[in-house]
Write a structure and sequence with these properties.
- Helix 1 runs antiparallel to helix 2.
- The chain is rod-shaped, with a radius of gyration of 26 Å.
- It has one domain.
- By secondary structure, the chain is mainly α.
- Keywords: Membrane, Transmembrane, Transmembrane helix.
């Protein structure tokens, strides 16, 4: 009887450990997702900074092509994202 009770207790501890491990894995996945979202936000900010830096430069021919590609990237992210209201600081109507 005591052996059965100990075995049951051991099984319960193993289940608890498994549940704890599962929760830890879930937390790790959530942290990874948060890191990916932050990296994506950083990429968008860097693209906008690059665009603003190119606006300060005065070369016309090369600049238009680079603007076009950066604008395509930013419009793609803005269209599929809700960061638009945060990062919509560059107005593309003049380019």
């Amino acid at each position: 009887m005591l052996l059965l009770l100990l075995l049951l207790l051991l099984l319960l501890l193993l289940l608890l450990l498994l549940l704890l491990l599962l929760l830890l894995l879930l937390l790790l996945l959530l942290l990874l997702l948060l890191l990916l979202l932050l990296l994506r936000l950083l990429l968008l900010l860097l693209l906008q900074l690059l665009l603003l830096l190119l606006l300060l430069l005065r070369r016309r021919r090369r600049r238009r092509r680079v603007y076009f590609y950066i604008r395509l990237l930013l419009n793609y992210y803005y269209y599929y994202d809700d960061y638009y209201f945060v990062l919509s600081t560059v107005d593309f109507t003049y380019y």
